[in-house]
Write a structure and sequence with these properties.
The protein is an alpha/beta fold. 39% of the residues lie in helices and 17% in strands. A five-stranded parallel β-sheet has the order 2-1-6-5-7, sandwiched between helices. It has a two-stranded antiparallel sheet with strand order 3-4. The protein has a two-stranded antiparallel ribbon with strand order 8-9. Strand 8 and strand 9 form a beta hairpin. The longest helix is centred in the last third of the chain and has 19 residues. Bound molecules: S-adenosylmethionine. The site of S-adenosylmethionine has 19 residues, from strand 5.
Length: 245
């Protein structure tokens, strides 16, 4: 997979994509990530990429032409899928990360200032994605959030697929609590079942904890979780215990 990030701050994006798990994935050719400076595509003496908004108002707007030219520079034979990071977009989810991980070429467009000229959105953008109901100064952090979540879904990026299939949001449940050595820390013990070596019991405990935590923190996502008959019964018992309190 190839990811092209169109940005006014390529150094900021490069610093992130060269580190940790994503950095290793890039080095081992599991993913190709390029950070393109939109300013390099401004056709004027001072490399100006923004201007005042028509109709008046505060701030500056990124002009269409440099963005369009930056986009053209990354397009190969096939049209890539272009995402504009925007607080007006649909909220990013794990499901969307999985969907985007199937793209051959994903282009992430970062806005700045008051945003970008609407006409370039109409011309090249396939979808707008928001990372949450708040406004950041630029699209770089949102683009890196999307790139990180997408890269983790690519084959071979994590040590094993189980790393993400058991994680929060993958199956509609939040993850069970995790523990590591020592077995007792500050007088707090690791749940005994995790030390038992009994895999079936550990699996059952983890699923039940996931159900408990999801019911407690995100009951809205429980609807879409795939639960066995026994687990549904367990969920009902938790709900009625909650009701009785
Ligand atoms: N004036 C715009 C509005 O009210 O919708 C906000 C522009 S914001 C200051 C500048 C850029 O940051 C946007 O063009 C977008 O690329 C990015 N951005 C800010 N918040 C975001 C969010 N929650 N999700 C995704 N991108 C965001």
């Amino acid at each position: 997979m190839k990811i092209s990030i169109l940005t006014l701050f390529p150094e900021m994006c490069n610093a992130f994509v060269n580190e940790s798990i994503i950095g290793r994935a890039v080095k081992s050719d599991k993913v190709d990530i390029e950070c393109i400076n939109i300013r390099d595509f401004a056709n004027n003496k001072h490399n100006k990429v923004d201007d005042t908004p028509y109709g008046g108002g505060m701030g500056m707007v990124m002009a269409a032409e440099p963005i369009y030219n930056a986009y053209k520079s990354v397009v190969g034979d096939k049209k890539p899928h272009l995402v504009y990071l925007s607080p007006k977009g649909a909220t990013f989810t794990q499901k969307k990360a999985i969907e985007l991980s199937n793209c051959e070429h994903l282009v992430l467009l970062c806005g700045h200032y008051e945003g970008i000229d609407e006409r370039v959105i109409e011309e090249i953008v396939d979808e707008e994605i928001s990372i949450g109901d708040y406004v950041l100064t630029g699209g770089e952090l949102p683009a890196l959030v999307v790139a990180d979540a997408v890269c983790r879904m690519l084959p071979g990026v994590l040590s094993d697929d189980i790393c993400f299939t058991e994680e929060s949001h993958f199956s509609g449940l939040l993850e069970y609590p995790q523990y590591t050595k020592p077995a007792v820390w500050n007088g707090r013990e690791v749940p005994e079942v995790l030390l038992s070596g009994h895999h079936a019991n550990i699996e059952k405990w983890r699923r039940e904890k996931s159900i408990e935590i999801t019911l407690d923190r995100r009951p809205d996502i429980l609807e879409s979780a795939e639960l066995s008959k026994k687990e549904l019964k367990y969920l009902e018992s938790l709900k009625s215990a909650k009701h009785d309190i």
